UniProtKB/TrEMBL annotation:
This is Nitroreductase. The keyword Nucleus does not apply. Residues 13-200 form the Nitroreductase domain. Belongs to the nitroreductase family. Transmembrane segments: none annotated.
Length: 225
């Protein structure tokens, strides 16, 4: 009978964290429980079009070091999936408001290039997360399957929260697919669609003070009775 209350708390509680405790690994059984729950995500005709690679321990540290080295060489990002070049104006406004608030929470001034560089390095090193989940799909699949992958990613972050593990979906996590393919033995017939960083959040870090806003229900949902 308490499930609706628990579910509401789960949805309201989850947020993106951007600083994790690097010295607190996620137990293997916990990772397996999170992924087992996430695999319950629905998909078109139960095709389950996701292929998932999880890096932790020494493998994740190798990837982190390789990412930082590429970043320090000013190597451009080379994602399998093109990034958006522009957003509709009203979406861009949401993004700008979110970024302003996030940097205010982190105490980073617009002109403080040193702090901004540290933030970029925090991003590219997976926020010190202790597990990295890379979500892939076959190249031959269509947007319908890509939508299924998005559903899986949503289940993943909620499953993590349920198991008291924090998360952040992160574009930077798939910035250098060639490194991920080498370290995780990801075959070429798979596209690297997205990545989610998992870990135990450093709750008192300024990086984790920010919580993004959501638009009001009546602005996003159209009821017609």
């Amino acid at each position: 009978m308490n499930h609706p209350v628990e579910s509401k708390n789960l949805f309201q509680r989850r947020k993106s964290h951007r600083k994790f405790d690097k010295n607190q690994p996620i137990p293997q059984t916990t990772l397996e429980n999170i992924l087992t729950d996430a695999l319950r995500a629905p998909s078109w005709s139960n095709t389950q079009p996701w292929e998932v690679f999880v890096a932790a321990g020494s493998t994740l540290e190798e990837i982190r070091e390789a990412y930082l080295a590429a970043f320090d060489r000013s190597e451009p990002y080379n994602t399998d999936v093109p990034v958006p070049k522009e957003w509709p104006e009203y979406m861009q406004e949401r993004s700008i408001r979110n970024s302003i608030h996030m940097f205010e929470c982190m105490g980073i001034d617009r002109e403080d290039e040193k702090a901004r560089e540290l933030n970029r390095r925090n991003n590219i090193s997976f926020f010190d997360g202790t597990a990295l989940v890379i979500i892939c799909q076959e190249r031959s699949l269509t947007d319908w399957s890509t939508m299924d992958l998005g559903t899986f990613a949503g289940y993943l972050v909620l499953a993590a929260e349920h198991h008291e593990v924090q998360s952040v979906p992160a574009f930077n996590s798939i910035a250098y697919p060639q490194i991920l393919r080498e370290k995780l033995s990801i075959p070429d017939h798979l596209i690297l669609r997205s990545g989610v960083v998992l870990g135990y959040a450093v709750e008192d870090s300024p990086y984790n003070e920010h919580s993004s806003e959501r638009e009001a229900l009546h602005q996003m949902v159209h009821f017609l009775n």
